[in-house]
Fold each of these.
Amino acid sequence: MKPVFDKIQQLSKPFLDTRHNDVHTAISTLLAFQLLEQEGGDENIVIPAIILHDTGWKRVPSKLHLKAFGPKATESKLNRLHETEGVKIAQEILQKLKYDALKTEKILEIIDGHDSRTKPISLNDMIVKDADKLWRYSNSGFFIDIERFGESHEEGLERLRCNLSEWFFTVTAKEVAAEKLSRREKEKAVEVGVAR
């Protein structure tokens, strides 16, 4: 990673120690690089945006998190709150680093609707949205989610299967998600085989 990305990552750490966002952000950043390589886009917008996109959860009380996201979410305004608070935090961090003003504007625009905006505003936004959701198909993301949502392995797999065609915008993300889903299904098969 570029030194400036490392600096952004360091400054974001105090805001990512909730909701497993440290793990989520690390995995999503790797996925964003993978998508950038295949789909194009501007890493100077995408990588800061993916590092900073969920910093706003720090300002949403943790006891309310599961009301704001996930299959049983009931409070969309709380999800929206993490976006608007994330914009404020990201702006502070990027200004502190004297990050390019035009790129900062585009980064903040992406963060401001990374969950609530259903239609992407640019290729960079597509990549951030896709990298954010692809984490759910990773080994860590899958097991963190089924535990916090109180799902069985099969229920978690079904949630991923049902959303595979709806969650992603880029061809690469759909392919990566399908490949990771196949891995999660094989893990279950191995687990069932061992149980017998």
Amino acid sequence: MTEIIKNDRIVDDSWRVLRLEEGESPETVDLPPEPTLFPLSVWRARKAALLSRAETAGVWLASIDTPEEIADGDGTLGILGILPIVGIDFPKFSDGRGYSSARLLRERFHFKGEIRAIGDVLQDQLFLMKRCGIDAYAVRPDKDIRAALTGLTGFSESYQGGVDEPLPLFRRRKA
């Protein structure tokens, strides 16, 4: 079983991430019975089947997807209200769109479930990912997950506001 970092600890991961292979389509891909993060395209195509097993089905957003696509247009949760987990794919280290998606999920849509970083997730990103509301990290398989765990505690203080501490440092200073 693979391991992830979740809530600042290394734990066994019971979820798998479904990625479509060449030639597979969202409408015909096999839906595994175990807890699975499905790409948004599969959610759209197979929504009825996936809603019937909501506790073992999550969705992951590619960098081109937005949280608005899984929330209702009026700013309410939509299917986010029943999802236990949303994955955010970081296709490469330098692609920062997932940070915005995480903040939108937490701050605009008030998503309370797990937000998991998947893809090219490295130690240097974890502290900022956490500040944006991500609480689980599937570290790239070729990296040491125990070393990556230290990325969550690399800084003692943050200057900017974030999901974890909305006030910037200058507003938190004691007089």
